[in-house]
Each structure stands twice: as C-alpha cells, then as structure tokens.
Amino acid sequence: MAQDIALNRDSDSKEDSKSKAKDKTVKTVPLYKLFSFADPLDNLLMFLGTVGAIGNGVSIPLTILMFGNMINAFGGTENSNVVDEVSKVSLKFVYFAVGTFLLSLLQLTCWMVTGERQATRIRGLYLKTILRQDVTFFDKETRTGEVVGRMSGDTVLIQDAMGEKVGQFLQFIATFIGSFAVAFIKGWLLTVVMLSCIPPLALVGAVLGQVISKASSRGQEAYSIAATVAEQTIGSIRTVASFTGEKQAIANYNQSLTKAYKAGVQGPLASGLGFGALYFVFTCSYGLATWFGAKMIIEKGYTGGEVITVIVAVLNGSMSLGQASPSLSAFAAGQAAAFKMFETIKRKPEIDAYDTTGRQLDDIRGDIELREVCFSYPTRPDELIFNGFSLSIPSGTTTALVGESGSGKSTVVGLIERFYDPQAGEVLIDSINLKEFKLKWIRQKIGLVSQEPVLFTCSIKENIAYGKDGATDEEIRAAAELANAAKFIDKLPLGLDTMVGEHGAQLSGGQKQRVAIARAILKDPRILLLDEATSALDAESEKIVQEALDRIMINRTTVIVAHRLSTIRNADSIAVIHQGKIVERGSHAELTKDPNGAYRQLIRLQEIKGSEKNAANDTDKIESIVHSGRQSSQRSSIQSISQRSSGVGSSGCNSFSESHGVPATVGFLEPSGGRPQAPPSTVSSPPEVPLYRLAYLNKPEIPFLLIGTIAAVGSGVILPILALFISKMISIFYEPVDELHKDSKHWALLFVALGVVSFVMPPCRFYLFGIAGGKLIKRIRKMCFEKVVHMEVSWFDEAEHSSGAIGARLSSDAAAVRALVGDALGLLVQNIATAVAGLVIAFDASWQLALIILALAPLLALNGYVQLKVLKGFSADAKKLYEEASQVANDALGSIRTVASFCAEKKVMKSYEEKCEGPIRTGIRRGIISGISYGVSFFMLYAVYACSFYAGARLVQDGKATMLDVFRVFFALNLAAVGISQSGSLVPDSSNSKSAAASVFAILDRKSQIDPSDDSGLTLEEVKGEIEFKHVSFKYPTRPDVQIFRDLCLTIHNGKTVALVGESGSGKSTVISLLQRFYDPDLGNITLDGTEIQRMQVKWLRQQMGLVSQEPVLFNDTIRANIAYGKGGDATEAEIIAAAELANAHNFTCSLQEGYDTIVGERGIQLSGGQKQRVAIARAIVKNPKILLLDEATSALDAESEKVVQDALDCVMVDRTTIVVAHRLSTIKGADLIAVVKNGVIAEKGKHEALLNKGVL
Q: Does 665 have pLDDT greater than 70?
C-alpha cells in the first residue's frame, strides 16, 4: 500500500511537472551569474584563459597571411632564389608553432581547470544546502534521485557552460573577426564578392541542422509509439499471456515499426541532401573566386598570393562562426540547469539545522510534553493526524505508544525530533518550547533507533562514530559492547573495519539494528526514541536486541513505538492511540483489567496472529537449518518488510499509509498479482557475437549496400579532386594574362561541375545505407519483440527484464547495431576512397615530396582528431569520476532523517569533500593534459607546414618538381588527412555496438521454457472444468529460498466456485498463476479434466480461462477494443455489447460522450476503479471461458462499486468453474468450498458456516 501511494505520488508529480513545463517557459540564469562562485584564483585562471583563447583565435588569420606570402614566394620568384625566400617564411611558421602552443595550452587548461573548480564548489554548496533543509522539503519538493541527478547531471551541464566551451567561443569569435580583417585589408573588392557565398553557406548549415534534428525527432517520435506498445505489452505481460494477446501485440508493434522505418529513412536522406548542398555551395564559391580573382589580377593588379589569402580567410571566417554555435547551445543548457540549483542554494528552511541561534542549557532533565498539538503532514494537508493531541512523559520514565497502523504513533517521534513543527499547539522539553532550543544542540540530546536502521556505506566503526563527534576507539568499543554487537563484530574478519555495504546490506537485520543502537548509545542521549526498533527481526535477534535496549533505557526518558505488545510489558506507562487521540493510558497490568478496552482488543488481535506466526516461525526454523545460508534468507525477509512498511526511516508521510487491514506478519509479502519481488540482479555481459551473423541478418539488402558502396566511393574522391583543382587554381594565377583569362573561366566551370557531382553523391550514399540500416533495425526489433512476448512469465520477474529495461534494449540496442552495419560501413568505404585518391594524386605529382609529407601525415591526422575531441568537450567523463561522491550524497539524502537526528550534516559534507578530492585532482590533471595535447597539435600543424614547404622549395630549386606539383601534393594529402580525421569522429562507438549486438542475440538465442507460440501439445474436444492440484511444491525462481507450496493438494469440481483465503504472501494468487502456466510447479502436477496441463498446448489452455485481477490492466485504446481483446480482437459488436451488459458495464459506457469509442487512457486511467473492473470483467466474459479466475477482483473498490461489480460477477459465475481469491470474507460467503491456504498447504476447507463454527475464519 505504501508503495502504491508513493508510486501514485510519483506519477502525479510527473504529470504535474509535465503540465507545468508546458505552462511556463524554461527559466534560466544570466550567463555571468554562473561565475558567481568564483574565487580570486578562478578569476586569474579565467583572465589567462581569455588571453589564450583570443590569441589562439587570432593566430589562424595570421597563418593565412603567411600562407599567401608562401605562395608568392613560390610563384613570384625565380627558381634559383626560391629556397631563400621560402625558408624565411618557413622560419616564421616555426615561431608561430611555438606561440600557438603556449596560447592554446593556456586557453584549454585555464578554462578546464576553473570550470572543474567552480562546478565542484557549486556541487558542494548544493549538497550543503540540501542537507540543511527540513524533512518537509524532502517529502514535498524533491526526491533523492532528483537531487543526485542534479548533482551529477546538471552540474556537468553547468561546468560545460563555464569551462572549455567559453574558451572555444572566444577563440572562434576572434578567428571570425581576424579572418575578415585580413580579407578586407588584402583585397576588399574580392572579399565583398566572396561574402555573397556566406548567406547560402549559413542558410544551408542552419537548414541542415534543423532538418536533421527534425528528421531524427520524427524518427524518435514514430518509434516512441512502437516503444509504448512494447512497454505496455511487457508491463502487463500477465494480462497479455492470460488473454493470449501475443499475436495482437506483435501486429501492433510491427505496424508502428513500419511507420518508424519510413520516418527513419527520411533522416539519412535529409542529412545527405544537406551535406550535398553544403559541398555544392563550397565548391561553387571556389569557382566564383577563381573567375573573379583572375579578373582582379588582370584589372586591379592583385597578386596570386593575395587572392588565395582572401579566399581562404573568407571561408575560414565563415566556418569559425558556424563552429561557435555549439558553445551557444551549451551556454543555454548550463543557464537552464543552474536555475533550479541556484534557487535551492538560496532556499532557507523553516527548521534550519545550521541555525546557530537558540537556547542551550547545561543539560536537560528529559520531561516531554505535547500540548494541544494539531498536525497534518505537509504532503497531505487535508488529513489531520492530530487535532488537539496532548501527552506528557515525565523524565526518566518509559512510555510506550501502541495503536493500529496510521494512528499517529510515529508522528509523535517525528515531532519530538523536530522533523516537523505542529501547525498549532506546542512540543515542550523541560517546559521549554522545542522551537526555542538551538536545533543541533537539542537533537544531540535525543537518540533515535528506528524500525529500519539506516547505515551509511562505510565501515562499522565509522557508522557507530556518527553518534558523537571525535569519538575515541575505546568509546566506540564500549558502545558496541553495550549494544550486544561486540560479539558478532569480533567474528568478522576485519572486525570494526568491516564495510557494511550500501544501506548496510552486508549485515543481517539484527546486526544492523545493534550497530544502530551502538550509534545511539555513543550519543549518550537524555531522551531515547525507539520506533519499532525490533519489529523487523526474527525471534532470536529480537531477544538479543531487546536485552541491549533494556540496558540503555535505564535513567533515560524513553518513548517506544511498538506493534508487538510483548515488547512493552515492562513500560512505566502505555498509551493507546486511535485516530490521533489517546483513548487509554496506564501500565500493562492496569490496561489488561478492562476486557473491552482498546488495549485488550489489540492484544486479542495479536494473539490470533501470534498463533499463526508461531507456526510460521517453526517452519522457518526448519528451513533455516535446511538452508545453511540462514543469513541470506533472513536478509531477504528484512528486505521484503522494508518494501512494505516505510516507517519513519523513509518518509513521514508513508508511515501511515498502510492503515488498511491488519499488518501482515513477518515473512515474504507477495505484492498484488502474486508477483515475486526481484532481487537486485547482477547482469553478466552476454558473449561477443561474430559479425557474419549480423551481416546475415542484413542479407536481403545486399543490392542497396552495393549501390551505396559505389556512391560512398564517389563521395570519398570529391575532396582529393578538390585539392587537385585548388592547386591548379593557384598555378594559373601566375600565368600570362591571355592564358589566365581563358583558363580561369575553364576552371571556374570545372569547379561548378564538381559541385554538381558532390551534390548528388552524399544523398545517394546516406539514403542507400539508411535503407539498409533502417530495415535491419526493423527486422531486429521485430524478431526480438516476438521472442520476448513469448518468454515464460518468470523471465520477466528478473530485474533486467523489466518493461523499462527491455524497452531500452529494443530501442537503443537495435539502433546501436545499425551503426555497426549502416553508418559505419558507409564511412569506412568513403574514407578508404579518400585516402587512396589522395595518395594517387600526390604520388603522381611528386613522389619524393609525397613521401616526406606522408611521413608527417599522422601528425596532421592527430591534429584533426584532438581538435574534434576538444570541440566535443570532456564533460561526459566528469560524470563517471564523481560517481563515488554521488554515492555519499545518495546515501545521506536517502536517510535524511538519520542524518538530521545525529546532526551529521558536517560529517556527510566532510566525507563528500574527501570523495571529491580525487576527481578534482583528476579533472585538473585532465585539464593540463588536454591543454598540452591541444597545444602540441597546433605546434605539429605549423611545424608540418614549415617542413613540407621547405622540402618542396628544395625540389623546385633542383628542378625535380614544379610549383603546381608542390601545391598538388600538399593539398591532396592535407585535405585527405583532414577529411578522414573529421569523419572519424562521426564513426559511432563500435565497442558499444558490439555489446548491443551481443545483447540482441542473447534475446534471439534464448528459448522460452513455456512458449505460447508453440503449437504442439494436446487440446481437448470439450472442457468440463475439473481441476486438480496433486502434491504441488513450488518456489518462485527469483526467490529460491522461500517455499510457497509444500505438497499442496486441492480438487475443484466442474461448475463449482472455490474460494481461496489466507494471509498475504500465503500463495493464493500463486494458485492462479500456476493454473495459467505462468510458472510450472517444481514437484507434483496440475490436471484439467484428468489431463496434465503441461502436456497441453499453452495457448489453447489459456483460452479456456478468463482472468479478472485486483488491478485490471486495460490498454490505451477504446473500451470496445479492450473488451474485444478477450477474443483476440475479433469479437462482433453484438458479442461486445452482450458481454458489457452481463458485466454491468453497458450503462456507464453508453453514458460516456464517445460511448464504446471512449479511449480509456494509459492503464485505464480515464475510468474509475469500478468502471475499469467492469470492463475487465466484460473482457473475460467475451472469451466465454469454461474456467473463471477472480484474483481479489473487488478488493480495490469502494463499497458502492463493489456491490455493482459483485452483482456482475455473480451473473457470470453461473455454470462455470470459478476460483476466487479474496481478502474480504464477505465476498465469498456463497462459495461452494472455501480453502484456507497456510504455510504452503491447504490448512482447512469447507463451507462458510462450517469454517465459522470451527473458528477458522
């Protein structure tokens, strides 16, 4: 129940946040505000980084200037002097290399380091602020996951916006301004003409970005429909299996996949067209420059070098403007992320743990009084827990609070600890209002031991030390002995230094509780609050823990909250609380005198349960001897309890949420639907998959792949051919005027022709590989989904097969596999073509120079790679580094009450800061290393230029090459290296794809153990409905140490109604699951009309049964479709209406505006509980089943709906074999047989009256 409420709240708040998000635009912080936490050192770093970035940005235009001089040195001088002229310019390149090395080092290192430092500071401040918030803040405004998400995710975005991205932005802007300055100085007229190419370039770039994101989002959107189908199907797999709806689910999924495929193919086509257009404009602008540049040389006396300088400067400047835009989006993301964090950092709580004002006395006596207190939880302001509640507890006495769940016992503890303040009335300690004390001081006087002790992820010693600042080893040791913990600690190999694991998972419940008590003892509190401190323990642990508690309660004011009355007999005073009022008070002896008193009633209730519990405990003891792994079973039983009752340990508002029904006994709880809780699983990675299996899946697309390969080769040779043209363009600028006039027109047209080719090739390549990839994804998803839907139900109980996990695998793994085949293959072919073409052109022009440059080419490729890595940013790695620190935060926030009650905020911060030290050092080191590699990459670039031109000049002087050859070799290899290194960054992570492929094949290769698609097996001509369970033993596969049935026998005659009753977790719903063959029994067998059901065809067997469960699962479709689902979707209108009438659903359906076409919403959310339930009954009726299975079909309904639904059920049950699982005994009075399930067997059976007389019911 607690879980349901929490879940509902989650979903509500998600809905809220969605609607709110629509209402208001995203709030952001001004950019300069991001830097408001910088210290003087950060300011210095930012200043140096800015200087470096601007210097680095300006270096590129200056290089272009020198490049023009270099061309003039080659073209404008006689061959004899060429080496002298060129070596002067080469030397300048070397100086430049050194300068840019230093500047780029400064730029990247300073910005990365300051970003790291400031982000860490923000993280720390955020955690510190969160820790000082009152408990209300955690109940209402935030969840642990959200805070940790902010700390790890949002700070990365903020760091991104104030780290190296700022440096990059400044660098590109400096390049932009510098390039245009150079272009205008060198030749303003040509620059103005060249500017005409910028609008189309910018336009194509912008449209390309838009189109790609639109196409990809359209693809995502189309797939998201398929993903919803998958999520719905897997999330309600029991319903799907029960109604044999697998075929329908697969058909729906395939339909959505086809849509997704169509949308998915548009994406690559759009990208291809965009890239084609970009190449087209780019190449044509060279054509324009060739023609107009020649004109300028003839008419205005420009030199060839100047023309080239202008062309390169304009193209460079416009490109750098484009490169600056990713920084802008990073700034926007950072500003938005900072808003919520900075808001929280500014928030001051009403109950402030860091508040230093307030009274401090020498000591307190420990008198507690609650006077006329009115209180409701902030999350549920309409529900008054206390209205004028008063209670006084004299110092040094022990008072026990008892009462049913939700009566307000734990709330008293929350108020004394001042987790909450009452809305009216006051809480007094020693007659002083609690609000007047200094919060930290008063909390140090109060010790809390709660039902689920919260331990932190550190050693036992550190956990105990939370009780007192600066505790010595002796004190810790003494506290452990007092708490009966020393014995078990000494047995552990590491003793006190044993790590307890997350939430203390390495210790058993009793051990955890004793560590928590030792922690409370170390605090030496005047007031001790025990909130069900022993309720989660088995008998033996309880005895030991109780002894420890008895020892420390002496001479302290003690408040005990208890469910088990046996633990509080010796209390000085017992107060019985009922609905927020004290109805009785006195000692155990006094209260037991009144036979009709509230206390006696509680005792009576517990005695009934006690006898059951003893029986359960006896069998547990036998079990624990059989399973030598007693610890594990004990630990899991603790887990199951903590899943049920989140007491004060988790959130005050949940501690009252299981007020319905008698609290369940200790042991495993079976959540609704009889579904076992999956243990945290350890997922082993599936084995590697050979590539030929993938290729085989892609076999039908071979023609597409072949033509695509040809297009990829075409795309690949464009850059080398462009290099050939550019070098020719340079050489014609130094021809005599009449030749120049003729050649410039000729080459300008050739540039345009190349542009046309480059417009056609990329779209072909993208589109063809897109089709092949898209079909592969579709095929893989379809095959996987078919496989998954037919898996046996127990497969879905494992955590790694939840609907979310499988959905993620279907969506991301399939897409990652595509990367391996479609995109990566195309790029690979293209890169090989580029490399081969570049080499051929270079070696053809001058093999000596080609060899020299080739030796240096790896350095150029490295430069391209480093530049891209810097562009992408390093922030993703930062997330991984801070995982340990996030764990500390996660721990503390998940147990904020424990942190608050032990005033451990400073301690948590200290531990967090320690965990951050490593990552900060790593971050700074990474900043320095990245800076150096960035600097080195620039240094290499200029050094390679200097080297290759000097070598070229030597060859020209010796007559072994011409100027045209030198530039041809230089451009061919340079452009090839750049092309390869840049497209290299587009290659998706292949290691990722390989593991994705492995996970896909792991699903495809697994055989379902109970496969509904398997048509073999018996079917009976006519079903009577005789069911027999013969000596059935069963354990859920996910909980092999908990026996659900031991040798269970049960016969159900045809046409009769049998009701199963028993406490939660006894296995009532399991009977239904076994009958439907969701699971198979471990021993024994189940027969239908004398035939074993395991020999029958699964699908046929399930079609004979109609299931109505406690929380009916409806699909997000019309009422008509939901009812027709019972008959595989092909019921006639008449059948649907007849079923609805029988189920009492026809009238309310007709009263809806859309009638039977009303969409019921996700999981039927648009209908009320009773309406949903009646639609579910109609769905079961349409099937016309021989056997009807009702699993608590009315338990979730209010009285009125229940009556209507019960009437519907009574009509339907006539002449059918019916099995009813029920909690409410009123609903099963009329059953032909009632069977009581207990301890894995049928303990009693008979008619209602007979069992009543025996006193069983």
A: no
Write down the domain spans for the chain.
26-181+851-960, 188-301+690-846+964-1009, 368-608, 1027-1254
DSSP 353-417: TT---SB--S-----EEEEEEEE--TT-TTS-SEEEEEEEE-TT-EEEEE-STTSSHHHHHHHHT
Q: What is the DSSP letter of 151?
A: I
CB 723 within 8 A of CB 971: yes
Q: Which residues pair with 391 in a beta bridge?
A: 370
How far is residue 1209's CA from residue 1178's CA, in Å, rounded to a whole number?
10
**What's residue 921's pLDDT?**
86
Classify strands 1187-1191 and 1105-1109 as parallel, antiparallel or unpaired. Answer: parallel
**Which residues does 354 contact at the CB level (< 8 Å), separation at least 6?**
132, 440, 905
- Rounded to whole angstroms, the Cα distance separating 65 from 71 reads 10
Number of helical H runs and strand E runs in the chain: 43, 20
The two three-digit tokens of residue 873, written as one number: 């940013």
What mean pLDDT do residues 1053-1082 have? 85
pLDDT tens sequence across 569-614: 888 999 999 888 899 999 988 888 888 888 888 887 766 544 444 4
Burial classification of residue 707, based on how many CB atoms lie within 10 Å of its CB (0-12 exposed, 13-18 middle, 19 or more buried): middle
Residues 787 and 253: beta-carbon distance below 8 Å: no
- Do 368-608 and 1027-1254 fold alike per CATH? yes
In angstroms, the CA 742 to CA 740 distance is 6
CATH architecture of 188-301+690-846+964-1009: Up-down Bundle (1.20)
Q: Which residue has the tokens 């080659």?
A: 74
**368-608 domain in CATH 3.40.50.300?**
yes
Contact of 334 with 227, CB cutoff 8 Å: no
Q: Which pLDDT tens digit goes with each residue over 202-218? A: 787 777 777 777 776 77
Q: Which of 143-147, 425-429, 1020-1024 has the highest mean pLDDT?
A: 425-429
Per-residue pLDDT at 872: 60
The stretch 483-492 carries a mean pLDDT of 85
Is the dihedral angle over the CA atoms 784, 786, 789, 790 positive or is it negative?
negative
Percentage of residues of the chain with pLDDT beyond 70? 85
d(CA 151, CA 134): 19
Position 317, amino acid: G
Q: Which of 895, 870, 1161 is closest to 53 using CA atoms?
A: 870
Supply the Cα-derived Rg of the chain in whole angstroms. Answer: 38
Model confidence at 634: pLDDT above 70: no
Token pair 């030598």 is found at 628
- In angstroms, the CA 289 to CA 1001 distance is 55
Using pLDDT thresholds of 50, 70 and 90, give the confidence band for residue 984: low
Per-residue pLDDT at 760: 92
CATH number for the domain formed by residue range(s) 1027-1254:
3.40.50.300
Q: Which of 1227, 1162, 1145 is closest to 1191 using CA atoms?
A: 1227
pTM of the model: 0.65
Q: What is the mean pLDDT of the chain?
A: 80
User: What is the spatial distance between Cα 834 and Cα 722, in angstroms, rounded to a whole number?
Assistant: 11
Which CATH number does 26-181+851-960 carry? 1.20.1560
pLDDT band at 648 (very low <50, low <70, confident <90, very high): very low
- DSSP string covering 551-565, please? HHTTTSEEEEE-S-G
Which is nearest to 343 in space by CA: 630, 131, 129? Answer: 129
Give the list of residues 6+ apart from residue 272 with CB closer than 8 angstroms, or none. Answer: 762, 763, 764, 765, 766, 767, 770
Q: pLDDT tens digits for 148-190?
A: 777 777 887 888 888 888 999 999 999 999 999 999 999 899 9
* Token pair recorded at residue 326: 């990713």
Query: CA 369, 374, 378: angle at the middle one, nearest 5?
Result: 115
| Spatial CA neighbour of 720 closest among 851, 866, 822, 845 | 845
